[in-house]
Amino acid sequence: PYSRNSDGRKVLRSSIREFLCSEANHHLGIPTTRAATCVTSDSRVVRDVRYSGDPIEERCTVVTRLAPTFLRFGSFEVCKPEDVVTGRAGPSAENWDLQQQLLDFVADSFYPRSGQDNGTDGVTGLPELTGDPKADLEGIVQATLLQSELFALDLAWIADRIEVVVSATPPDQDPLGPESLLMEKVTKLIKSRLWAVPAIEQLLANYELILASPGASNVIRTDREFEAWKGFPVTVTTTEPHKKKTKFEGNLTGRDQKHVILNLKGRPIKVPRALVAEVTLPPPKHEKGDQQMKTLRKKWQRKGSASSIEFEEEAVVEVGQAEELAELTKGDMAEDGEDEDGEEEDEEAQDKYVRVYRELVRRTAALVAKWQAFGFCHGVLNTDNMSVVGVTIDYGPFGFMEAYDPEYVCNGSDRTGRYSYKAQPEICKWNLEKLAEALDPTFPLETSLAILEEEYDRTYHAEHQGLMLQKLGLLTSDVPTHEDLELQLGLLELMEVTGADWTGTFRCLSKVARGVDLDAVAQELSTVYCAPPESLAKQYARKADLFRTNMTAEQLNGFLARAQSDPEGLSKLFGGTPVDVLRTEITEELERVKECEKSASKTAALK
């Protein structure tokens, strides 16, 4: 029942290695499961320690590990339907209720309010608190929008209420408009991120925050909207009575710093802005004898925000239609109430899933960036070895890279370099894509893949570049300059050519300072941390053997040509495997041939 026909036992030697290295990762700042205990026994198993043909008996050992959860990406594949290529399916194939239960459990247990109570800060780059609650709240809102690449079209304080109109386009461009569902979701996402800030709850205990998107409802908020709707009939609602009234109707004249101004039959009405709760446009009214009330109602609700628009029933009907229309309206209203409740619950659930998946993408990208910066290779990055909370899990054939080699493979059974050092960022992204597929249809695939493309590469590169700049002592700016990146790439190329030790090189470079003998540092680098030619020859020979394939480049190119000219024949030759799958596998095999030839040529040059 164990993988690779093994016996499922761990020995003391590898257990101590796992214990020490996982704790090393933790203290390097790499998110990881922790080693709690290491218990050995008198039971023994036979192991060939050096794969030399000289096996020995070793004591069996158990390492107890700690983590928030041991759920993995692969846990969601329990509901996977039958695969069109392999014909295999999950044990609970297409059990979508179970899929939703599992996703809700992960969201509610490990991602409350996008990071609160789970060890993350939610929003980074926040301004320091000044002690002025209004200034602090405004600063947090502005920083959150900046982090999310959004714009504040309007930000205004009205008494103890801050109103912010958010847009995905700059103020000098037209907003997305009322038909955009995107801005509604973005606004909710901003709210969830704000709640991840520890100080926000205390601030919002005394102040009210209103976030809105332009044109998303019939509520008028921005200066541009007040200008655009000038002369139109509006309703102004107040938070407390003004002149014994809480509702004022009239044609909009405008607003200034102190008042919202209406015109009612030539008479100006000034409502103090500090008392204004909202200014709304009236909903549409039905034509005489209209039998399509439900259609019109839903059409209007689609144009506006269902949470802020109420339908006014002031239709005038003919006597013969009144009873029929009343019954129709009654049924429609009941159906709409049920539909709205269900739609609201579903929308809340989808917002939660967006928040969770987005945060997991960011955590995973940041995790692999740390692996790359510290030279850590996992070894077996399949979906069952990726944590749903973004920590390092399952320490098996892992390794810390010594001589810098982008194609370093720490797993002796990885003959193709699938999980090599340089492949780790892309394979982690691929695993997130497989997770997205496993979450569909509870969390639609098109939504998750859009988040993946939006967040992963950006987060990875920002985190990795920041760490590399720190290793090189280039801390003058948060944004690397072109010269910084050129220096970094040039160093890596030189390290690869010389087989320089990854950790030792950076430790040696840390000695560089004013007044230090640079020649002495260079001498130490070249003699202590760079590999001699004979060692490099052995390294390239091993790689040539690792990437060796049984087919030549000419044969593989012949198969690719046949994929174009005779796809059915090629598929039949390989047992019915789809041509697209074959084309991908043949292309990967060609890459391995090239790697083998490159390593062999380097070996010959060094001998």
List the helices and strands and how they pair.
Elements lengths: L11 H16 L6 E14 L8 E11 L29 H15 L22 H15 L3 E8 L2 E7 L13 H14 L5 H4 L4 E5 L6 E2 L2 H6 L4 E10 L2 E11 L3 E6 L2 E6 L3 E5 L12 H11 L15 H56 L1 E2 L21 E2 L23 H16 L5 H28 L9 H17 L3 H8 L8 H12 L3 H14 L6 H13 L1 H7 L5 H28 L1
Parallel strand pairs: 4-5
Antiparallel strand pairs: 1-2, 3-4, 6-11, 7-8, 7-11, 8-9, 9-10, 12-13
Helix pairs in contact: 2-8, 8-9, 8-10, 9-10, 12-13, 14-17, 15-16, 15-17
Report what the structure shows.
Its cofactor is Mg(2+). InterPro entries: RimP_C, RimP_C_sf, SelO. It comes from Eutreptiella gymnastica. With 607 residues, this protein is an alpha+beta fold. It has 4 domains: 58 residues, no CATH class; 192 residues, no CATH class; 148 residues, Roll (SH3 type barrels); 75 residues. Helices cover 46% and strands 15% of the residues. The strands form 4 sheets. It has a 6-stranded antiparallel beta sheet. A 3-stranded mixed beta sheet has the order 3-4-5, covered by helices on one side. Helix 2 crosses helix 8 and helix 15 packs across helix 16. The longest helix is centred in the middle third of the chain and has 56 residues. About 10% of the residues have low confidence.
In a nutshell, what does this entry contain?
The protein is of the alpha+beta class and 607 residues long. It contains 17 helices and 13 strands.
